[in-house]
Amino acid sequence: MPISQRRFGAHMSIAGGLHEAFARAVEVGCDCFQVFVKNQRQWTAPVLTAEAVRLWEAARSRTGLGPVVAHATYLINLASPDKVLWRRSIAAFVDELRRCERLGVVGLVVHPGSHSGHGEAWGIRRIAEALNVICDRTDGFEVKTVLETTAGQGTGIGSRFEHLAEIISQTEARQRVAVCADTCHLHAAGYNLRSDDGYAATFAAFDRVIGLDRLLCFHLNDSKKELGSHVDRHEHIGKG
């Protein structure tokens, strides 16, 4: 895609109301942005009211900004071996998808999950099983589930393109699943983005394994750590 057609933004605060994110995005020169649609460190949230949706839609119409993506709560673990936590994660993700659908958010970004020692293959199956339940409960929704590439820290799934491709292949409604490429996480996972050739090779591999048609968005960050460190430590762009 030509650079003139690409949209650049940042994660915006929703303090004071979801709709306030639009004004903040305009203030810093964004033409798209990401938000949390609820408190990212709590399982539950107040009901999304009709008035909150009206204010959001009015702000979007007034500013013309978009598309908007959201990031899921950090508590969610769709690979959890704990049945209670796994089911709670599914319910929380479904709730956030419903909020996104009402707001016209195009995608909900989520870290795939951590297998807690049960192994990558087991974790991948667990995530796909969760996504199948989630898609059944949100049948007909337009908002996509967006799997984020991860650093490979601990037992996290998603540090290899093959992980994400396998999750998608085991998901029945795979047309509703996309990918977010986080550059800090890619670097930590061992994908070299430090040169034109490295970038080209990385995304040639992405296209071959997953398909560029599934790449919905980037999280652009530098890393505090070395290539292939498997340590998730973000740094400001140009300082890592």
| Distance separating the two termini | 26 Å
Structural class comes to alpha/beta
Q: What gyration radius follows from the Cα positions, in whole Å?
A: 18 Å
Instruction: Tell the overall outline.
Output: globular
Helix content: 25-40%
Reading off the top of the CATH hierarchy, the class of the domain at 71-235 is best stated as Alpha Beta
CATH topology of the domain at 71-235: TIM Barrel
How many helices?
7
Number of strands: 11
What's the CATH architecture of the domain at 71-235?
Alpha-Beta Barrel
Mean pLDDT: 96
Task: Give me the side-by-side strand order of the main sheet.
Answer: 1-2-3-4-6-8-9
CATH homologous superfamily caption of the domain at 71-235: Divalent-metal-dependent TIM barrel enzymes
Strand content: 15-25%
List low-confidence stretches: none
Major sheet: size, sense and barrel closure? Answer: 7 strands, parallel
